[in-house]
HTH tetR-type domain-containing protein (Actinoplanes siamensis), 221 residues
Amino acid sequence: MSPAERLSKATVAERALRLADEEGLDAITIRRLAKELGVTPMALYWHFKNKEELLLGVVDHVLSDVRADRSAGDPWQKQLRAILETVIGVMRAHPCLPDLMHSADKMQTPSFIRATNDTLALLADAGFGLDEAYWIATYLLNGAIGAVAGQPGCPPGVPPEQAAEWRRQKRVQLECLPADKFPMMVEFATTYQQAPDVERYFAFSVDLLMSGVETMASRRA
């Protein structure tokens, strides 16, 4: 069996995802992927007609595990939190995803449609109307994207061995602000003395997003 015959949508999407993580979304082209996979471009066109379809295939691939376990009998809050944590976990694992999730027409992907349907069902259980449920689902997705994009610490391009120096420079920059005008920012400079607790940050982010939904749901009880 030739490489082209062994090729699957999942294989192509996984390689495209890896390439985007390493070099950015602009690096993804049909020709480049074909070379990476050892096939002709025509072999990829069998699965994806163009780059837009390919990027949607990546979204569909990475969201394949985002679903609610409706058979478990867990309360809607626990299931919704699990979906949110899964989405954040997937995006944390793949640096290219926040930008892709923000820009792609996700409603063209079966995995996103299923995940959205699951989310709407959970929010309906919480007492929200479908329009409100969709607003909340959108809010949670954008909040998850923002949480990952805004992860504290060094920018992605800073090597680990330069992290301490990067934090020192940021601390000095804030400490040099006029304390009479920006006292809180000057005080905030002390937070750069050590690496941020990223796991605590993401747990806090999930709590923050969920608390708004749970508070509004409680008003409908």
About this structure: The two ends are 60 Å apart (CA to CA). The chain has a mean pLDDT of 90. Residues 152 and 197 are 8 Å apart (CA to CA). DSSP finds twelve helices and no strands in the chain.
